[in-house]
Design goal:
The complex is a heterodimer of chains A (346) and B (336).
Chain A lengths: L4 E8 L5 H10 L6 E5 L11 E4 L4 E3 L8 E3 H11 L7 E5 L6 H10 L1 H6 E11 L3 H7 L1 H9 L2 E5 L6 H14 L4 E4 L67 E8 L5 H15 L3 E9 L5 E8 L2 E9 L8 E8 L3 H9 L4
Parallel strand pairs in A: 1-6, 1-7, 2-3, 2-6, 7-8, 8-9
Antiparallel strand pairs in A: 4-5, 10-14, 11-12, 11-14, 12-13
Chain B lengths: L6 E2 L4 E5 L4 E7 L2 E6 L3 E6 L2 E6 L6 E6 L3 E6 L3 E6 L4 E6 L7 E4 L5 E5 L2 E5 L5 E5 L6 E4 L6 E12 L8 E14 L5 E6 L3 E6 L4 E5 L9 E3 L5 E4 L5 E5 L11 E3 L6 E6 L5 E6 L4 E5 L5 E5 L11 E6 L5 E6 L3 E6 L2
Parallel strand pairs in B: 1-28
Antiparallel strand pairs in B: 2-31, 3-4, 4-5, 5-6, 7-8, 8-9, 9-10, 11-12, 12-13, 13-14, 15-16, 16-17, 17-18, 18-19, 19-20, 21-22, 22-23, 23-24, 25-26, 26-27, 27-28, 29-30, 30-31
The chains are: A alpha/beta (346), B mainly beta (336).
Keywords (chain A): Chaperone, Hydrolase, Nucleotide-binding
Protein name (chain A): GTPase, G3E family
Organism (chain A): Chelatococcus sambhunathii
């Protein structure tokens, strides 16, 4: 089988700098040829030969299940592009500022023709350092885009003070502690940080450590799990080397670890049932698990109700056989998830 | 149990190099016209081959034919008619928007869609437009009269382009892709995103659901007598009975069962024989009456994803069968 064409989804709220980043990717001397799918022909031109306009038509499959939404226009365009294979090496999909990334991502798992020929590489979200803090409060779309991201480009950092920057970074990390975060001015980032991430490739789900402090190198090994009551509406700040830690009331990540093995006969039904029930609230999920009597690591990742999991490489000698899962979503019942997961202990 | 011996017609196939993904093909009298994803149309008549640029720097995404001309819709937004002698005429321009569907009707009528916008062109070149509720992914003319079935999200619109009346709606939830109208005009059938067919009996609007396909149906073909509808999308040709009251409550025939999915189907114009092209490049002729199979083309030796047969059509007399593949291979079978 020939290699599947990688697809990068570029998202971000209105004015964050998506098109600037796109043009930067396209004009760098990387020798790659791209097909670009844009959703609105904006005022800024796209500097590429092969640009396709799309209508962003979100379709429900299987009679209206909310988690089975796909982008009908994308299925059609990818099918058309595949007739011209050999003309490009990779595809970039730029969404509108108000788009939910989920239907785009789900298209790559729900449609067989699309998944036979292409693979989702990563969801890259461009965020405006000056305005994101406000948007996280008033625009659910912006929060979805941050929560969904594999890579976040925190753009326009030259327009904010160090304090404001720390603030917005803390806000981002409250919603999504796991994405790679890169700070940029005028969307200037090394494109290897954006393309070829293989974020949805099970073999590449290596570690699930929150990236709270990737920039200042400090190591903080404490629990950020605050005991908040249901009426909690205050911000939780903790200063650690300049980075604030917040708790987002609406969107959270739940990360749980069992220092040992789980029973697959308990875990698999539990996680399937969980995403079936809580799928609309769970945006992303990932896990690396040690199954009883299994020399290989079980790795899964998911988008809403769609789970993709398989046994991957063997646990290395000396590597601790731990089981870790992460969910990012809205109004997740952390206690119920914790109890359910702990009950899977082998 | 030994596999039954398959008689072979492979010695009667003349191979061609189309050179690019074959989007569709048509017979224009004695000329075979291939619409290609490199924007060219390849015209083959005997030993003569001619390549004309229908969509320079573009790709033919969809194509249709009225038997006189090959009409292609491109990713340059243009509708181009290519005659058997290589004459090219531009007959529409959607300003760079991809053409999603195109179909030729009787008396020189033509229809195409780009996104939601559907254009019908009558034999005198008069254009009428209709805005579908969502992208019009499939188009089919009624066999009776100037009426167009438009497949879109949540159903089909039946439009009389020459009237201002609101199109009639056939509703069914989901994304409808291709559409076909039975030759007796009694049934409209769509293929769906959910790997199923949906049909409506127009007399009483009764719904028909035809499910169980492992992949999307991308190719339909009606038998010459109109009694059978052959479909792609499974590891066999699935042939639904449309005589009497239609397929409700009746099982389809499955013929040409192989370990590869059928990608194109084409009924013979005068006999109950269906040609089936598979995703591995194999082509079989199958007689419906006794399921006898004749091999036209062997599967590619290597498992190659571009091997799929993407175009398949008989000439008007049913003496010759032409095919094309995703990898740009093509050929013409002349029956002995």
């Amino acid at each position: 089988m020939a290699d599947k064409i990688p697809v990068t989804v570029l998202t971000g709220y209105l004015g964050a700098g998506k098109t600037t980043l796109l043009n930067r990717i396209l004009t760098e001397p990387h020798g790659q040829r791209f097909a670009v799918i844009v959703n609105e022909f904006g005022e800024v031109g796209i500097d590429n030969d092969l640009v396709v306009g799309a209508d962003e038509e979100v379709f429900e499959m299987n009679n209206g299940c909310i988690c089975c939404t796909v982008r009908g226009d994308l299925i059609r365009i990818l099918d058309g592009l595949m007739k011209r294979k050999g003309k490009f090496d990779a595809i970039i999909v730029e969404t509108t500022g108000l788009a939910d990334p989920a239907p785009v991502a789900q298209t790559f798992f729900m449609d067989q023709d699309v998944s036979d020929k292409t693979k989702l590489d990563a969801v890259v979200t461009v965020a405006d350092a000056k305005w994101l803090t406000d948007r996280l409060k008033d625009a659910p779309e912006a929060k979805n885009q941050i929560a969904f991201a594999d890579v976040i480009i925190l753009n326009k950092i030259d327009l904010v003070s160090p304090e404001e920057l720390a603030e917005v970074e803390g806000r981002i990390r409250a919603v999504n502690p796991y994405a790679m975060l890169h700070k940029a001015e005028r969307a200037a980032v090394d494109i290897s940080q954006v393309l070829g991430r293989n974020a949805f490739d099970l073999e590449r789900v290596l570690e699930l450590e929150p990236a709270f402090l990737e920039d200042d190198g400090h190591h903080h090994d404490h629990d950020h799990d605050h005991a908040c009551g249901p009426d909690c509406d205050h911000d939780h700040h903790h200063h650690h080397g300049g980075l604030k830690h917040y708790h987002d009331e609406d969107m959270q990540s739940v990360a749980l670890t069992i220092d040992g093995e789980v029973d697959p006969d308990k875990f698999l039904p539990w996680v399937n049932d969980l995403v079936q029930r809580e799928g609309p609230n769970i945006l992303r999920s990932k896990g690396i698990l040690a199954f009883r009597d299994e020399p290989r690591r079980f790795v899964f990742q998911g988008v809403h109700m769609i789970l993709d999991g398989d046994l991957q490489r063997e646990w290395k000698p000396g590597e601790e056989r731990r089981s870790k899962i992460v969910f990012i979503g809205r109004n997740l019942d952390k206690e119920a998830i914790r109890e359910g997961f702990l009950a899977c202990t082998a | 149990m030994a596999a039954p011996t398959i008689s072979s017609l492979t010695d009667h196939v003349a191979d061609l190099a189309a050179g690019a993904h074959v989007t569709a093909l048509a017979w224009l009298g004695g000329t075979t016209a291939f619409a290609l994803a490199d924007g060219a149309a390849l015209l083959v008549a005997g030993d003569d081959q001619k390549r004309v640029a229908a969509h320079p720097d573009g790709a033919a995404l969809v194509a249709t034919s009225d038997g006189r001309r090959l009409v292609t819709g491109g990713d340059d937004g243009r509708i181009v008619a290519v005659a058997g002698d290589g004459t090219v005429e531009e007959i529409g321009d959607e300003k760079g928007r991809w053409i999603d569907a195109i179909v030729a009707g009787r008396d020189g009528t033509l229809a195409w869609s780009a996104g939601k916008r559907v254009t019908a062109r009558d034999g005198r070149g008069r254009l009428r437009h209709f805005e579908a509720p969502s992208t019009a992914q499939g188009l089919a003319f009624s066999p009776k009269g100037y009426r167009l079935a438009i497949a879109h999200y949540n159903g089909v619109s039946l439009w009389f382009p020459n009237t201002d009346a609101e199109p009639e709606k056939l509703e069914w939830k989901g994304s409808h892709l291709g559409v076909t109208w039975s030759p007796d005009a009694r049934f409209v059938v769509t293929s769906m995103q959910e790997n199923a067919l949906h049909g409506w009996r127009l007399s009483d609007r009764r719904d028909m659901r035809m499910t169980g396909y492992p992949a999307k149906t991308r190719s339909f073909s009606w038998s010459h007598d109109g009694n059978w509808l052959a479909t792609s999308g499974a590891d066999a040709v699935i042939v639904w009975p449309f005589d009497k009251d239609g397929p409700m409550g009746r099982a389809p025939r499955e013929c040409g069962v192989r370990h590869a999915k059928v990608s194109r189907v084409a009924f013979h114009p005068g006999a109950l024989v269906v040609a089936a092209g598979y995703e591995d490049g194999c082509i079989l002729l199958i007689r419906l009456t006794d399921a006898t199979e004749l091999l036209v083309r062997r599967a590619s030796v290597e498992a190659q994803e571009d091997a799929a047969v993407t175009a398949l059509a008989w000439d008007a007399k049913g003496k010759r069968l032409a095919f094309g593949t995703a990898a740009g291979a093509a050929g013409i079978l002349t029956l002995p």
